[in-house]
Amino acid sequence: MPEWEEKNILLDEEAMRRALTRIAHEIIERNKGIENCVLVGIRTRGIYLANRLAERIHQIEGRKIEVGELDITLYRDDLTNKQDEPVIQGSHLPYDSTNKKVILVDDVLFTGRTVRAALDALMDIGRPQSIQLAVLIDRGHRELPIRPDYVGKNVPTSRDEMIVVELKEVDDRECVAIKARSKEK
Question: What is the pTM of this model?
């Protein structure tokens, strides 16, 4: 199994904060406020990013926006390729998403397959008025026709590279890094 080594830090803690603040402003502007809007974070890191966006939106608008959690495990198209049994943590939407403007939040957009699974999961739960996509990093290499509405940073990558988002809530570190396969010695 190849080892991965960190090549470069793309975003440090301060740059991540600025990117999320900009995305929060863009969400408010595009939706002319936050009326009828909800945030849905995709497990795992998307949830923490959605909570951070909710905090920034509250600071800007002076109103709270509801946040939900979406577990897409059973909607993935690669379940048969997995060796281990999937760990299902469950979705938690403290609201009815029907007729809401749902802003789906994830850390990295790559092939689009995670977002496709999230769209299927959302549609099984309710019928939103619209679904928008906010991602911290868009690295390209789409396999499905999916495009984000809000992007923290576009990072062109090769398929031999990996983007790693580390958040204090999960990783005790705050950064976005690009990693490459280490060269065999």
Answer: 0.90
